[in-house]
Amino acid sequence: MNKVIISIVLVVVIILLFFGNLVWGSVSIPYGEVVGILTGNQTGSDTYGYIILESRLPQAITALLSGAALATSGLLLQTAFRNPLAGPDVFGISSGAGLAVAIVMLAFGGNISLDNLCLGFLDEECGYAIGGFMAILVSAFAGAMLVMGIITAFSAIVRSHTVLLIIGLMVGYLASSAISLLNFFSTAEGVKSYMIWGMGSFGNVSMDEVRWFVPFAILGLLVSLLLIKPLNAMLLGEQYAENLGFPIRKLRIALLVITGMLTAVVTAFCGPIAFIGLATPHIARLLVGTENHRQLLPVTMLMGAAIALLCNLLCSLPSDGGIVPLNAVTPLFGAPVIIYILVRRR
Asked: What is the pTM of this model?
C-alpha cells in the first residue's frame, strides 16, 4: 500500500509541476489564461496562446518524457551490470552523441552535406544537405547509436560486468578527447555554439518536433516495462536467471539497445543531460525500500519525470528573463545523492 501512495503522490506532484512549467517563466501568465488556452477557450492575448502552445507546452512534455527515459536507462544499466554507478553517461553514450555533434558543428559548420551522390553517372547535381537543428538531431542520434553498437558488440565478447563498464568509460574518454581537439582547432563562434548545446535544454523542441520525440520515448518506456520479470531474475544472480530460462547475454544486449535508444533520443533533442539517469534510481530505491522492479521501475519513471520538470522550472525562474543552463541545475540534485550512496555503501 505504501508503494501505491508513493506513486499517487508522485503523479500529483508531476501534474502540479507540469502546470507550473506552463504558468511560470520569463513572462508570468495567469492561471485562468493557461486553463483557457489548454481547453480551447482563450479569452486573453494571442501572445499568451503562442507562448503556451509553441514554447512552454512542448518544453514541459519534453522534460516529462526525457526525465522518465533517462531515469529508466540508469535503472536498467545499474541492474544489468550490478553497479550503482552505471548510467548512460558512464557508458559513453552521451559522449558519442556529443562527439558527433561536435564534428558537425565544429568541423562542418553545422551542416551535414552529402555531395556527388551520383558518383559521376549523371551530369546534374544530386547532393543532399541537412542544416540547423535537424543536422544536430541526426548527428547526435547517430553518434549515440554508434557508441551503443560498439558497447553491444563488446558485450557479446566480454563476460565481466566490470570490464564492460571500464570499456564504456574508455570510449567516453576517447570521445571527450576528440571533442577537445575539435574545440582547440575550431573558431570562437563554433566553440560557443557547441558549449550552448552541451549545457542541455528541454526548450529546443518545438511542437512539430514533439510529434517525433514522443513516440520514440514512449516506445522505449513501454518496452522497458516488459522486462520487469527478467530484471528481477537478474537480481538473484546470473546462474539463477539462466536456470529460469533467461539468456543472460541476449538480455544484456537487449538492455543496452533499449538504453541506447532512450539516451540517443533524449540527447539528440535536448543535448547531454547529466545526473538524472545516474541519481534518480537511487532516490526511487530510498522511497520504495525494495529492489523489486515491479514497484521500483514505475516509481523510477515517475521520479525522473518529476525531477526533470522541477529542474526545468528552476531554470526558467530568474526574474531578468534569462534561462539558467539545465546542466547547472541537475547536479544540485544528483551529486548529493551519489555521495550519500557511496558513503552509505562504504
From this structure: 0.84
